[in-house]
Specification:
CATH class of one domain: Alpha Beta
Distance between the termini: 36 Å
Order of helices and strands: EHHHHHHHEEEEEEHHE
């Protein structure tokens, strides 16, 4: 199979054959950590391409500019401190994520990242509500920002404050991607079905990759830190069930994005197929495939994944 040129068309590190595709093969590399130097720049490009002629064009374009602001923030702010080695090893021993989002508090590195992102966002063309939300975040007190941070990390964002939390979520993605990048991927272990082995968060979607050494392997993509972790195909990422799994897509689609539905827990999550489109990005293409979410609202399935840029669906 020829190597493609998209952002996830080749693995972030060495890979091994996937036993779900090659019977008797060696297990694939469990986790691939994000590269903050390229992650957000590539995402910005993807948002820009998706915006062209799309019914959500203005919003996708806006998110492309947010992703560029994330790239600048990742490039031009001090790096966070190295995660504590003893705490990381202790988490591994107890099969817990090494970056504990439930106990996160803003430090100097995160504050610098957030301030840089907010500064970059000021120059983005946006509707008045988004402009007003930006001003509210910039003027927010330490306590108010802390509450927004906790809301994002708990995947529980108030409907009346979606726009404000978008900016905070964007900064948290940068910060946690930089933290994740400093870990040793070979020391990560599974911590639960549909749970990121780095930060403990839910996936935004999963990717079926077409990497030369593991064609057809499946990786969940973390909505927060950007880590990819291997997950068995035809298995619900929410409850782990292997029965009652089905796939749906928008009529006339090219098969690149499908909804994996589960009759056991009545949830769905999107699966992106890189063999159909090498440029797929889990965050950007999740937003762009809103039509698939709208289709699911007609049935019994609820969305099990989280995307701070696609709320209310």
């Amino acid at each position: 199979m020829a190597r493609s040129s998209g952002p996830f068309s080749s693995p972030p590190g060495p890979v091994m054959p996937d036993p779900s595709v090659l019977e008797g093969g060696t297990a694939p590399v469990f986790a691939h950590l994000p590269d903050p130097a390229t992650l957000f720049a590539r995402r910005a490009e993807r948002f820009g391409r998706l915006a062209q002629g799309h019914m959500l064009g203005p919003y996708l374009s806006f998110l492309g500019h947010i992703a560029r602001a994330q790239h600048v923030a990742a490039e031009r702010t001090p790096a966070p401190e190295q995660p504590d080695a003893e705490a990381v090893e202790r988490a591994r021993t107890h099969e817990m994520p090494p970056l504990d989002r439930s106990h996160f508090t803003a430090d100097a590195a995160f504050e610098a990242t957030l301030d840089r992102l907010l500064s970059q966002a000021r120059a983005i063309e946006k509707p008045e509500p988004a402009e007003a939300a930006l001003a509210r975040v910039q003027a927010a007190s330490e306590a108010e920002r802390g509450e927004m941070i906790r809301n994002v990390l708990a995947d529980s964002i108030p409907v009346e404050a979606l726009a404000e939390h978008l900016y905070v979520a964007a900064a948290l993605q940068v910060h946690f991607a930089r933290l994740a990048a400093r870990l040793d991927a070979s020391r990560l272990v599974p911590v639960g079905d549909g749970v990121c082995p780095v930060c403990g968060g839910p996936p935004v979607a999963s990717l079926v990759v077409n990497w030369p050494m593991s064609p057809g392997a499946r990786y969940c993509a973390c909505a927060l830190c950007g880590t990819l972790w291997n997950f068995v195909r035809v298995r619900c990422t929410a409850c782990g069930s292997t029965g009652g799994i089905a796939y749906q897509e928008v009529e006339g689609g090219n098969g690149a994005v499908k909804a994996e539905t589960c009759d056991a827990c009545h949830s769905y999550a999107k699966v992106l197929y890189l063999a159909q489109d090498a440029d797929l990005d889990p965050v950007a293409d999740d937003v762009a495939s809103l039509g698939l979410d709208l289709k699911q609202k007609e049935g019994p399935y609820r969305r099990s994944t989280f995307n701070p840029f696609l709320l209310g669906y």
